[in-house]
From TrEMBL, chain A:
Keywords on record: Hydrolase, Metal-binding, Zinc
Origin superkingdom: Bacteria
SMART domains (UniProt xref): Lactamase_B
Identification of the protein by name: MBL fold metallo-hydrolase
InterPro entries given in the database record: MBL_Glyoxalase_II, Metallo-B-lactamas, RibonucZ/Hydroxyglut_hydro
Coiled coil: none
CDD domains, per database record: metallo-hydrolase-like_MBL-fold (cd06262)
GO molecular function term, any single one: hydrolase activity
Signal peptide: none
Record-annotated Metallo-beta-lactamase domain positions: 11-201
Cofactor: Zn(2+)
Automatic annotation (TrEMBL), chain B:
InterPro entries documented for this protein: ACP-like_sf (IPR036736)
Taxonomic classification: Bacteria, Bacillati, Bacillota, Clostridia, Eubacteriales
Name of the protein in its database record: Acyl carrier protein
Length: 216, 82
């Protein structure tokens, strides 16, 4: 099963893939919520996968690592990005929350960095876990370290691509519109109908018509 | 490089405008200075001048000229170097 935890601050989705009470965590956002769910279900965390380096997708990373001591897998560029407060955009945390949710804190949220991922890849990485086949494929454009994560040919975790009703943003620091159009957009256009899409924001959905991957 | 030059270059770099476009430039006055452009610009200015603006100031930073006033409150003087 796939459980979703959505951050009320940033709107980001963390996904927990559970099989036989073992869990992979994708894009850890709010550690308190993740800990509660894991403990109430008696789940055992086994690893963390990252779709990209932006703060809203790694906000809980260090706290979860500290508690669970589990390895993180990400593209090399993502691993570099999480260690850099400019690349992970945590310096604009408050502005992002304001524009996203209309919330404002009196004091600025401190910028932060994370330690490097334990497992990194350049272009793609494949592995098996609990009888499922996974691949991670680098998809630059939204950020330099962005990747999609596929499971069993039917499930795709897309980070900040393919968010329903939202155009892909390539203008943040580290984004690249030309690279997105030349490479990532072409890949997204090949995704078959019927795929279960788990985006980094908004509701998961079944890809039933050609749309948000290349929505302008 | 003077503070004013750094200030101008941050606008030029993040919003894709020319130096002659800067006077009178306003938030949402051009497509590039939307919320995303604003976040990029603010982060760049904070890094450039090694400051951390309060959120109300970030939101009040609504024009090229207003930004100078706000940065002055953080000890970044721009006008006298022109």
């Amino acid at each position: 099963m796939v459980a979703t935890i959505t951050s009320e601050n940033t709107g980001s989705n963390c996904y927990l893939i559970e099989e036989q009470k073992k869990v992979l965590i994708i894009d850890p956002n709010q550690p308190d919520k993740i800990f509660r769910l894991m403990e109430s279900c008696g789940w055992e965390p086994q690893g963390i996968l990252l779709t990209h380096e932006h703060f809203d997708h790694i906000e809980g990373l260090e706290e979860i690592r500290k508690k669970y001591r589990i390895p993180v897998t990400a593209s090399r560029s993502c691993s570099e990005g999480i260690q850099d407060e400019k690349r992970n955009l945590s310096s604009i945390y408050d502005m992002f929350v304001w524009y996203q949710c209309g919330k404002m804190w009196e004091r600025r949220h401190p910028a932060f960095v994370c330690g490097p991922a334990e497992n990194t890849f350049e272009e793609s990485y494949e592995f098996s876990w609990q009888g499922h086949r996974f691949f991670m494929k680098k998809m630059p454009g939204h950020s330099a370290g962005s990747a999609v994560i596929g499971m069993d040919d039917g499930f795709l975790f897309t980070g900040d691509y393919m968010i329903q009703g939202a155009a892909v943003i390539t203008r943040f620091y580290g984004g690249d519109e030309k690279v997105y159009r030349a490479y990532t957009k072409k890949y997204l256009e090949t995704i078959p109908l019927g795929m279960f899409i788990y985006p980094g924001h908004g509701q998961p959905y079944i890809y039933t018509k050609k749309r948000s991957a290349y929505e302008e | 490089m003077t503070n004013l030059e750094k200030y101008n270059k941050a606008f030029i770099r993040n919003l894709g405008v020319k130096k002659e476009d800067l006077p009178g430039l306003k938030y949402r006055g051009i497509p590039q200075w939307d919320s995303i452009g604003h976040m990029d610009l603010m982060a760049d200015l904070e890094g450039e001048f090694e400051i951390r603006m309060d959120t109300p100031d970030v939101l009040a930073f609504t024009s090229y000229e207003k930004g100078k006033e706000i940065l002055a409150a953080y000890g970044v003087e721009l006008e006298e170097q022109e």
